[in-house]
TrEMBL record:
This is Lipoprotein. The keyword Signal applies. Keywords: Signal. Residues 1-18 form the signal peptide. PROSITE patterns: PROKAR_LIPOPROTEIN (PS51257). It comes from the Bacteria. The keyword Signal applies.
Amino acid sequence: MKHFLVFILILVSNSIFACGFYPYAEDVRFSFFNPSNFKYRWYSDFNYSSLSFSVNQIPADEEITVDANEKLWIQYCKNKVSAEAVREVLFDFKLDDITDKSTNEMLQYLYKTKDIEAVDYLKFAKNCEVFNVFYDNLWEQNNAQKVRNRTKLIDQAILLSNSVKNKNLKQRYTFLAIRLAYYNGDFGKIRTLYAKVFKTQKQGNVLKYWSLYFRTFAEPDKATANFYASQVFANAPDKRFMVSFAFNAKIPIDAVLKHAKTNKEKANVYLLAGIKKADHSLYYLKQVYKYNPEFDGLAFLLLREINKIEDWVFTPYYSLFNPSVGSYDRNEENSVRNIMQRVEKDRIYAGQVIEFINNVNLKKVHDPALWKTGKAYLALITKDNQGCLKQISKLEKSVSRKDSLYNQIEIIKALALTVNQQVGKAVILNDVKPILLKNKTQKKFLFAVGRELEYKGNRIDASFLYSKLEENDNNDDYNNYAYWKSSKAKIGYYTDYYSDYFTYINVFYSPEQVQAIVDETLKSEKDLDKFSSWKYSFMKKEIVRLYDLIGTKYIRQNKLEQALFYFGKNEDKTEHKINCSDCFWEKEDCSNRFKSPFFVLKYTPEFVTQKKLYSLNKYTVTQNLISYLKKASKPDEKNKDYYNFLIANCYYNMTFIGSLSEMRRYGSGEEISIRDFPVEDNNEFYECNLAKKYYTLAFKNAKTTKFKALCLRMAGKCEANKLAYRYPDDYENPIKNYNTFLLKKNKYYQDLKSKYADDYEDLISDCNAFEEYFRARR
């Protein structure tokens, strides 16, 4: 059953976004308060996560603890046997292995002391194991026989329970009978057996709570079942995961508490109710503390609450994604303003939890280090940086550097020191550097420090930390990635998030800021300290790419001379060829056919004669564009119409509809076509304004009617793209709004139809006519 639930969770999580990846849940959660730094293995299935509740895998290097049943057997054997020997008999041995010839320490002890009753119990228990399932095989037809066999074993277990002298064995036989009755569906038998043997037992052991586990599922009253479940949860760690599903959070807690006779039982009820609560659980923390302050469950509930708070605050604060648990369906609720308003409310709640911790007697609670560390972390969340650092200073003196908790403390310290700096003066502090190096594989931590620097105005150091997200650290943790949004990006598209430094600075950094990144990288000396070597290592391999980015940014600003300068820094320009050809939809192999964007338009037959073919790159395109612009601007130039037309073609090809979009964008297809991608030249990229400008200039300088008509047709084509961009809803129904777009709103097509009526149909309906019209230029 346990593994089946895990399977369902995996199936659901994999199917939600089966058509394409989009980060959600644990992908986006920012968590720096690691539960593994605290010793709550038996509660680990209930660590806060978007998969709650799910079975957690125990780390391979974690020490195996002795469970309650093993301890009971060790006690039964007068502490003369090891836990490993008990574990071998219980989990590894088959019925035939239980003999007096065995070298197992536990069996040797039982045979040596002539405890044949215990040996007979072990053999009987092994016989029952095969029946402790609902179905061994879905296609078996002998279920009735299985029921009869179980019934026979139940009767034998009851008989043996009544006949053995040892109280512990009596309880064990009764437990076996109860468990078999559960799989037989005999809830009445479970209630009878439990009442007879366990109900009046004052000192409960694991056998009682294992039996109460099955008694819980046999209880028809929901409030009573909740009470039983909470007691099993507190006292039988290995049953926690499954029994938690038997606790119905909709039942009023007062109805459940009526069954509690002791303070510890009340605390147990509040604990499970608090763990099942998805939102604020501070009230439950206070109640558990009131009734059982030493309870380890109280400390775990605090740990879980801290993990909830950091998700509510840091996930949206750093990434602008909603918290990993819970979602908001309507986009208007996901505005940056509303997200941050929720964050501030949750920071206030974090302060309320601190107030509770301040009123706790740390000498009474389990694991005071958790409470102290949690207090420091919550102070960071509430923006009390000084309070956080003061608490950290105390913890550093009391925790061993070899303890994993020390690194936890350092992570909090690094964040607090960074955020504690003034806006405009923030840097990567010397005290933070070794912590970053120590945790260089923790990408969300690196990003968080970078994000704090960015918020403080230091975008350059932030970019260096963001660049480390792309380094391969051989970390297989699929949650160890950072995904984030920008307040400038609209919500609801697959490209509204970032996961690498280059895409981010491509959109949001100015050319000057990218140049600053290059300058700092190049200034770095060869013999650097360990941190600086690590800091610059990735960017040193990115210099050529960054120069290309700066040039691309200047293209977006139409600063062509600056763009040419940076494109020229790529010494081997042929490595970055642009495959600019007219054969996008053709079946033939066009890999070696490079056509100039000045002469060829995408999706359009060739109609301008190109005197020579040459390999293209951003440098040569920019160089030729500058050259044509200079020629077109000369007062005495006789071919102004020609050069303006070529310039317009190039600008047109640099838009989303052209063959040369990579002059302005990185990526292809969906990556560059989402219209809400917040790049500074979005209007130009989608509206073709520069192309329209130069087609219009070509029109003004044209000498023939046919060429004027062609220039108007191309200007109208640009205008059509602009209208489609500005009125996407209308554009999606082109048949219904054909006249609206081509005539009523497109003034260039209006002029073409009114002033060049004889040419209108030829130019609008068939681009094959372009060649004839261009040849008529003179």
